[in-house]
C-alpha cells in the first residue's frame, strides 16, 4: 500500500482531489520524511475541507479564499488544549 493511499484513507477529502494526491506523491517521491508528508497531508486536507464548506474550487481559489482559511486557523482553539501558548515570530 502506497503512502498516498494511506493518507487518503486517513483524510478521505484528499482522495476526492486528484491534484492533491498527485502533489503528495511527488513530495513522497522526492524523499521527504514520512512525518513531513503526514503534516502536509493534514494541512492540505484541512484546507480542502474549508473549500468544500465554503463552496470554493481549490484550484481557482483566490487571496480572499486563502484569507478565510488563515483566519480560521488563527481563531480556532489549539488541538492540545486552551493552555497551549503560541509563540509568534512576527
Automatic annotation (TrEMBL):
Superkingdom per UniProt: Bacteria
Keyword DNA-binding found: yes
Gene3D superfamilies associated with the record: 1.10.150.130
Keywords in alphabetical order: DNA-binding
InterPro entries named among the record's database cross-references: Integrase_recombinase_N
UniProt-recorded Gene Ontology molecular function terms: DNA binding
Protein's UniProt name: Site-specific recombinase XerD
Taxonomic source organism: Streptomyces spectabilis
Amino acid at each position: 500500500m502506497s503512502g498516498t493511499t494511506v493518507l487518503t484513507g486517513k483524510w478521505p477529502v484528499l482522495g476526492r482531489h486528484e491534484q492533491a494526491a498527485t502533489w503528495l506523491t511527488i513530495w513522497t517521491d522526492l524523499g521527504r520524511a514520512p512525518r513531513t508528508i503526514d503534516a502536509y497531508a493534514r494541512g492540505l486536507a484541512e484546507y480542502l475541507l474549508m473549500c468544500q464548506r465554503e463552496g470554493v474550487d481549490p484550484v481557482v481559489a483566490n487571496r480572499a479564499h486563502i484569507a478565510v482559511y488563515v483566519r480560521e486557523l488563527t481563531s480556532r482553539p489549539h488541538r492540545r488544549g486552551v493552555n497551549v501558548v503560541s509563540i509568534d515570530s512576527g
